Amino acid sequence: MCASTYRPLDSPADAEPEQPPGLSCVGITIPIPEPLATELEKWRASFGDPMAVLVPPHITLITTTPAMDWQGTMEHVRAVARAQSTFTVTLKSTGSFRPVSPVVFLKVDQGFEECVGLHEKLQAGPLERTLDFPFHPHVTVAHDVSDAGMDAAVEELESFEASFEVRSMGLYEHQSSGSWKLREELNFGEDTEGSETSGS
């Protein structure tokens, strides 16, 4: 089976088992552009989160999902990207998944419905599966840190607000080493067929 669905994209996974041969796991995210990404990375580090320097700020659209048919998955994701228009995301104030999960996040205000719509289109066809929790777009700013660190994140970023244009999404493949590899950056409204990154 795939690695844990709760492990952030791009994070190391030294303790996770290898994937069975022939099974790929994918993740799809919206990247946070600069200089906002660096600002959010600094905030996350300030709350004591060691993943701040390992996981670029992002909005997850699809978390770790099995993909037996990689070519079919690529075609599906590309088709969704071609049909998607750019949109604006505004991150505003904070929320938390506590006590279910030790996560503090920035809320997606403007752009929430667009993110949900993208998720629903992507989590279909070769990527269709039942999730344990309803999809909730967000940007993590503290994960699995002390209660004091999570409280600080909630309070210090309560008045935070920033907007950016979403023009693309990244398709990642989970490697047997436990890391994530960006396989393709898909620009919305463009024909991206054949743009898969080279290498293994």
Topology:
Layout: E1 24-31, H1 36-46, E2 58-67, H2 70-83, E3 87-96, E4 103-108, H3 112-122, E5 138-143, H4 147-156, E6 161-166, E7 168-174, E8 180-187
Antiparallel strand pairs: 1-2, 1-7, 3-4, 3-6, 4-5, 7-8
Number of strands: 8
Query: What Rg do the Cα atoms give?
Result: 16 Å
Order of helices and strands: EHEHEEHEHEEE
Strand content: 25-35%
Q: Report the sheet with the most strands, covering strand number, pairing sense and barrel closure.
A: 4 strands, antiparallel
Shape: globular
**Averaged pLDDT:** 86
Low-confidence segments, given as residue ranges, are 3-21, 194-200
Whole-Å distance between the termini? Answer: 20 Å
Structural class: alpha+beta
User: Percentage of helical residues?
Assistant: 10-25%
What can you tell me about this protein's structure?
The structure is a single chain. The two termini are 20 Å apart. Strand 7 (168-174) and strand 8 (180-187) form a beta hairpin. This protein has a 4-stranded antiparallel sheet, with helices on one face. Strands 5-4-3-6 form a 4-stranded antiparallel sheet, with helices on one face. It is α+β, with helices and mostly antiparallel strands. It has helices at 36-46, 70-83, 112-122, 147-156; strands spanning 24-31, 58-67, 87-96, 103-108, 138-143, 161-166, 168-174, 180-187.
